[in-house]
Specification:
- This protein is an alpha+beta fold and 232 residues long.
- The chain has two domains: 103 residues, Glutaredoxin (3-Layer(aba) Sandwich); 108 residues, Glutathione S-transferase Yfyf (Class Pi), Chain A, domain 2.
- 54% of the residues lie in helices and 7% in strands.
- The chain has a five-stranded mixed sheet.
- Helix 6 packs parallel to helix 8 and helix 7 crosses helix 10.
- The longest helix has 28 residues.
- The radius of gyration is 19 Å and the shape is globular.
- The two termini are 20 Å apart.
Amino acid sequence: MNENNNQFKALPILYSLRNCPYAMRARIALFKSKQPVLLRDLVLSDKPAEMIEASPKATVPVLVLATGEVIDESLDVMLWALKESDPNDLLHSEDELIHPDENMLSAMLAFIDEFDNGFKSALEQYKCAKRYQEDDIVQRRAVCQQYLDKVEQRLTTHKFLFSDQESLADIAILPFLRQFARVERQWYLQSPYPKLKQWLNGYLQSPMFTKVMAKYPLWQENHEPVLFGDIS
């Protein structure tokens, strides 16, 4: 296949890094939206010139649309994909039709912002404390637990974070909670968060996650294009 063929010209190009949580959640949203893209997997030590030209900040994910428009924030990629197609109603648009006084999207975005800022910072400090065997690892973990408590409380009320239906919020914070669970594995397995562990395991053991995390050859110019997305 030639990437210049007409069948590929109209497809967005996604620059991604397999284990980056921001790129991961972008891929999940694209997969959930059944929006096919041409995937260009890379490594941080060898960023393609095309990606840097499209987005000088040179961080993944970067989505380049057929129009030339560039979307280089993971949450914006997620919103673009789900506004294009949202077969599972992850944006809860139907709920807003039933309850017009409730702005579900705004509530989800506020929740995500809290995790993107507060939890992500606390998580990085917790990971560093573990990596460098620092004395304050328990205190660093405790800061993260303030956010985990909120997740556990929500999941005690319903199956997913905002209702019994999966939402944008679930898939947006999923990669970061996956990271947390891997820092001190034994502590996490014995932690007092049964609902969170059930919710996270449900994702990590799902066919969706297996497909999203599949390993692809690193992109090189003139190589076969890689089509990513659940387009069935």
